[in-house]
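Recap slide: EamA domain-containing protein, sequence and predicted structure.
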Amino acid sequence: MDARPPAKLDVVASNLLFASLAVGVAVSYGTKTGVFANDFKTSPATAAALTIAVPFLLVQYYAIRKGERWAKISYVAFAGLSVLFTFLDFKGVTAKLDTPASAAIFVVQYLVQLAVMVMILQSLRGVKPAAN
């Protein structure tokens, strides 16, 4: 069996990113945490950030699916910064994980984002992963 071509990596990475975003929003809504905390009374700054961030992420994830280089590079750059800042403030990040469920979701989403970074880097380099 042949290894996956880079285009397939883009589709898988995009699917994982869309799923991660959907799960994050659903869990946040269901547990009334994050942007849905305080009985859905978000600050104007949070609402503005969501109005800009979510559409940008959706466009970026779709562009990754289509193989757009700008989307891949910007995702790797932002995700890399996220990894760096998480390690620099690990104690502060983990202090916000007050329930086992929030900790589990954080770990799973973080691992998904790291896996997506690897897939995108392989796609950018044109490296095909070994067949299983």
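The chain is about 80% helix and 0% strand.
The two ends are 8 Å apart (CA to CA).
(End of recap.)
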